[in-house]
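Intended use. Records like the one below are meant for learning the mapping from a protein sequence to its folded structure. Do not use them to infer anything beyond what is encoded.
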Amino acid sequence: MRPFLAFDTATDHLALAVGDLDAPGEVLIARDMPAPRAANTVVLPMAERMLATIALAPADLAAIAVGRGPGSFTGVRIGVATAKGLAHGLGVPLVGFGTLDAVALAARAEGLVGVLGDAMRGEVYPALFRAHAGTAARVAPDRVAHPGDVAAEWAALDEPIMLTGNGLIKHAEVLIAALGARATFVPEGRRRPDGASLVAAAWAESGEGTLSAVAGLSRPDACGAAHPQTLLPIYTRLSDAEEAERVRAGRAGTLPHGGVAGPGATA
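Structure written out for the chain above:
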């Protein structure tokens, strides 16, 4: 057994889980809880208690996986910074996964799934997935948009869609007006990442520096392939403070390529 810790702090709901690099998809233990504006104070103690429950210590971990967003700017930064610190300290690889991917997987749905993350400022983080048999394949990349535009785009698909995500708290009526009977809603208790969906999202990532890519490597090789310093968050836009600074400097605009992403990307 080579346990790895997965967690996400990009929303107001903290989720953690322990998986096994030798058993793809297996969840050894999982925990989740509401943590509005408190993830930085509870994520590490909660992880330590969770590990102790199954007789493990942080030193037993073989990898760290973290939700890269998009979501709350502060939440994303807390998660990525905490994960980098843990991975550096333990000398293990660090891999990332999309927060909205974990939300889609937590829906445990079939067919077209629309995730609407709350981006504040009257905007949303929309993402579309094709879900089947416990998987959720992305249809479009992460971005930020106005809910009315998203509703029109999804209505134009002219097919049933299951809706989920914390953006529905504010913007469900816009989607209902556009989609009508084609829209169904995931129960509120499943509109956020949970431990099992984190593990599934981490394994679902493909390409260099992902969990599936490093699982078969020795620890030194895995650390080289997924070094903590190479992982970057997904923001999709500038924070309020950064946008204000760009406006003052006459450089208002969005992030290059729709956001910061890694590994290997630049802002």
